[in-house]
Amino acid sequence: MQYGRNCWLDMRKLPDGFKLGVATAAYQIEGGWNAADKAPSMWDNFCHKPSKIADNTTGDDACKSYEYYKRDIEMLKFLSVDFYRFSISWPRILPTSFPNKISEAGLTYYNNIINELLVNNIEPVITLYHWDLPQNLQDLGGWANPLIVDWFEDYARTMYQLFGDRVKTWITINEPKQIAIYGYGLPRLAPGINSHGIGDYLAVKHVVMAHARAWHVYDKEFRAKQKGICGITIALDYREGMTDSPSDMQAGKDAMDFEVGLYSHPIFSTKGGFPDSVVRIVGEKSAAQGFFRSRLPEFTPEEIEYVKGTSDFFGFNHYSSRFYSREKFEKGMYPVPSYDDDIGAYYSYMDYEKSAVIHVTVVPQGIRKALNWVKDTCNNPPIMITENGFATYGGLDDEKRIMYYNKYLNATLDAIDIDNCNVISYTAWSLMDNFEWGFGLRIKFGLFEVDYEDDFRTRKPRNSAFWYKKLIATRAIEQDYKTEFKEISF
Ligand code: BGC
């Protein structure tokens, strides 16, 4: 094998100090949707409407972690993770959405988790926003309303005040693209606003501004005392040309600028603001379509400066790769105006090995390319891989998930060892099966299986949980993994 410094026989060592963890998100695991004084989130409302979720399930109960969080921590101890990434439900902790009222029950719940993690030497990594906006803020326009920047600032400051003495890694926002494009441009995720080519771009700008505001609050008011770090997590599935033709290659580049650059360029590039290519393309199309101004809002010069440099690390979620062709793009393929029409390309996942969801196919070389893209276009920041994982329909024997993790970790080590990408941690999505948004409970991403038929929500480690446990213990990838599976319950 030609893996270089960290390889011996069939083991490949992780870099010294490299951290390993798992992730979840509040709406996907907590349940207790109306427990105590919790207010509804836009996901509660979305799921309570007919025909929004493929299998007609909801996150009302999910894994019941609101009740059973102690067992989640037992599972984390079983794996011996370095850290646990989880999110706070804004309407659970602030039932009015504003800091005028802090929920006793919500505060106790998150304090219990954080304290229990620390007692067990597991570092809490908190995501402030993983998609469950309070419904009353959505009623006021949600991410399409510029005032959300103030609302998010107040929420973020309150969380730093409540938990920042113990929490040292903050992720402001999880996946701005999914929030803006799938929530406000397509009816795919809550709130399900179908304002394609208009509402989505408003949300894009406000998500970026809200993140920057939350970072500045941490930087100015808390950093010196609390000594933590704060950043954003961006979905960085790779996009590339379907063929080597110059126009397909250009389509791949444009797709990266739209899908990732819209969020990374304002924050991580030296120049700041939205990528030139996106500004030009949306500006020209808007004019040709009869709009008096670009559908993509502008940043003022002050805003460009304000947003630049507002992340202490690059939170990197990666699942798969998608391939773009301008040659195969036809008029009428997408609504006009729309984000997809603006990108102006046909796309496909090609015939790579599939998982149980369309957006996750097995393309391990894509993670290496994506990590290099961050290194090259974002000033080589420290990268925390905050999600990576594979979907099945269930079963404790999940060899395919192990293969996926093995291949993606090997490609990640290529990016570190050979390409010098500055990757400092890796997070498996997910600790356990949970509510997979529009797909519902049927799709399983867990290292642990959750039995939704059982009121106690019994959790059992899959084969992949044993594999991850061993990876954490040995800090090395075994090329030929031998199963040590036995059936146990939490
Ligand atoms: C999200 C997770 C989700 C995962 C798998 C990511 O986009 O952050 O919440 O479950 O993908 O689809």
Topology readout:
Layout: E1 7-8, E2 11-13, E3 19-23, H1 26-29, H2 42-48, H3 65-79, E4 83-87, H4 90-93, H5 104-119, E5 123-129, H6 135-138, H7 148-163, E6 169-174, H8 176-185, H9 199-226, E7 229-235, E8 238-241, H10 246-268, H11 276-288, H12 301-307, E9 314-317, E10 321-325, H13 339-343, E11 346-348, H14 364-377, E12 383-387, H15 399-417, E13 423-429, E14 448-450, E15 459-461, H16 463-474, E16 476-478
Parallel strand pairs: 3-4, 3-13, 4-5, 5-6, 6-7, 7-9, 8-10, 9-12, 12-13
Antiparallel strand pairs: 1-2, 2-16, 10-11, 14-15
Helix pairs in contact: 3-5, 7-9, 8-9, 14-15
This protein binds beta-D-glucopyranose.
Beta-D-glucopyranose (BGC) is lined by residues 25, 28, 174-175, 178, 235, 317, 387, 429, 436, 445.
